[in-house]
Structure formats: structure tokens, C-alpha cells
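Appendix C: a fully annotated inverse folding record. The material below is reproduced so that readers can follow the format used throughout the book. The structure is listed first as C-alpha cells, followed by the designed sequence.
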């Protein structure tokens, strides 16, 4: 069922999910999984990646996830891991959008909320003079404290709002190509798969590789890039960073950038696609889930 065609407005979908917050987590996740994948959700013995992510939401409640889901607080975690040199330059941090002094910001920047996921509250500004401030301010307004959400993504519950402004990374060698987003799927501190997002703003493409840069020919919710994506010169450095940043979690996706020969930290993602993406071939769902350990947190 393509629910997005039935309810086209994202705002309307969010309102409906808000009205369903009273529904307990397990039946809510089973309902959403059925609607979005067409399958029953197996939680007793999950084998698929998408199933294990639903289990992760329900049962892995390590408080460290709250720190690392916050886009400002996670900078402390990266520094604690000895990788502070990977952090993108921070221009400013605000409690809310009304505090933003747009005049003091540089001509080019990225501004985002700190307690949101999925890129919904991120603004890439290549030219401040062309920025629609009214639209930007509306997009950056966020709830005082993130409540239980429709996807039941525990890591984001209760995060206090904030806004950060960072340097806009640019590909100086090939500006039109933009920058690639390298997303490392890590299991118990071991990177095993790499998802590369390209052409984010001109026709989003996505390719899947193993750590030896072999194309796995997996298709998700974005078409694959038809041109050959070269193995990045910084791959070894990114694999090391991903291993260090993921060692405290059974599973996490470590998002990095490689720009002009330098590696930058993006974010830590605990619930990619909220666990509702459809893979082709279907076996890819099992491949990505094979080494996903199911561990409860006790502490």
C-alpha cells in the first residue's frame, strides 16, 4: 500500500500519527510495518534488518542513544572518542529559532534542529541573500520536547530542542557533483556495509557496497547511480572512524563525508528509514540483518 499517495500531505500524516500516540508501541509498529511493507512483523525471532530495527526501537533503551541522537550533544561524544578533528566547523548554537541572528551568519551555511531526524528540519543555504527567512523560520520551529513519535523511535524521545549552524561543505574539485554521503552500517563496532548517497538535490541516488567497495546491487527507496562511483581515497580512514564511533552500540549507522581529501562526521543514525524501507532483491533485508545482534540494555 502506498500510503503517501493516499495521504499526500506530510503534515496531515504527522497529525494522524499524533492522534495515535495513545496506541501501545507493539501494535502500532505492527500496524505501520504491515501498511508500509505489506508483511507481518516478526518480533519473537526477527531475521530481517527491517524487523530487527523495530525490535531495537522497542527493547534497546541505552541512555547513550539520547546523547548521540542530539545533533549538538553528539559532538561531545565524537570528541570523547578522540575524533574531534572530524567535526564540521560550528558557527553558532541557539535554543530556538527566534534567537537566530541571521545577520551574523556567514553567506553560506547549514542550519538544522538538534532534536529531529530524517533531514526534515535541515536547511542548506548556499546563498544567504536568496534565503526565504519566513520559510526557514517555520521549518526550524520544533516542539519543546520531542514526545513519543509515530515511528516509535525511542532515541529521540524527550530531546530538548535547539538549533545549530555549521559550515557548508563543498566539493571544490567538482562543485556541480556535490558531496557524497557515506553511511556505514556497523554491528558491534564492525562496519560491514556502506551506503553512498549521491546527487542529493538533483535527483537523489543510492548505492550499496561492502567494505571492499564491491557493488552489492541493492535497491532501496532511491534508484542506484548508473555511473561508477570511485572508491574514495579516504575509505580506510572512514572505516576506522566508523568502527570507533560504533563500538558502544549493537547497531548504528555512522554517517560521514569525504570532501576535498578530508573526512567529516555527519551523524549517528539508529533507525535508518525507520525500518520501513523495501529492498530489492528481498534477500538484501536478510543480508543487512544477518549480523544485527539483539541485545537488551541493562544498567
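Designed amino acids, in order:
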Amino acid at each position: 500500500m502506498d500510503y503517501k499517495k493516499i495521504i499526500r500531505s506530510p503534515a496531515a500524516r504527522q497529525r494522524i500519527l499524533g492522534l495515535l500516540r495513545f496506541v501501545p508501541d507493539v501494535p502500532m509498529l505492527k500496524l505501520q510495518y504491515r501498511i508500509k511493507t505489506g508483511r507481518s512483523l516478526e518480533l519473537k525471532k526477527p531475521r530481517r534488518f527491517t524487523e530487527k530495527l523495530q525490535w531495537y526501537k522497542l527493547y534497546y533503551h541505552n541512555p547513550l542513544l539520547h546523547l548521540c541522537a542530539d545533533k549538538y550533544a553528539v559532538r561531545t561524544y565524537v570528541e570523547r572518542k578522540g575524533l574531534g578533528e572530524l567535526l564540521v566547523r560550528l558557527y553558532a548554537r541557539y535554543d530556538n529559532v527566534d534567537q537566530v541572528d541571521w545577520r551574523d551568519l556567514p553567506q553560506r551555511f547549514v542550519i538544522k534542529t538538534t532534536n529531529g531526524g530524517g533531514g526534515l528540519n535541515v536547511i542548506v543555504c548556499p546563498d544567504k541573500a536568496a534565503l526565504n527567512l519566513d520559510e526557514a523560520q517555520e521549518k526550524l520551529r520544533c516542539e519543546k520536547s520531542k514526545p513519543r513519535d509515530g515511528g516509535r523511535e525511542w532515541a529521540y524521545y524527550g530531546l530538548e530542542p535547539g538549533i545549530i549552524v555549521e559550515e557548508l561543505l563543498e566539493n571544490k574539485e567538482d562543485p556541480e557533483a556535490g558531496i557524497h554521503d557515506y553511511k556505514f552500517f556497523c554491528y558491534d563496532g564492525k562496519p560491514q556495509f556502506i551506503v553512498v548517497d549521491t546527487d542529493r538535490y538533483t535527483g537523489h541516488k543510492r548505492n550499496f557496497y561492502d567494505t571492499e567497495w564491491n557493488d552489492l546491487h541493492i535497491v532501496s527507496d532511491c534508484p542506484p547511480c548508473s555511473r561508477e562511483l570511485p572508491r574514495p581515497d579516504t575509505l580506510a580512514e572512514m572505516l576506522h572512524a566508523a568502527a570507533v564511533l560504533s563500538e558502544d552500540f549493537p547497531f548504528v549507522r555512522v554517517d560521514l563525508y569525504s570532501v576535498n581529501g578530508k573526512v567529516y562526521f555527519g551523524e549517528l543514525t539508529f533507525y535508518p528509514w525507520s525500518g520501513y524501507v523495501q529492498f530489492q532483491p528481498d534477500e538484501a533485508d536478510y543480508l543487512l540483518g544477518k549480523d544485527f545482534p539483539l541485545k537488551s540494555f541493562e544498567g
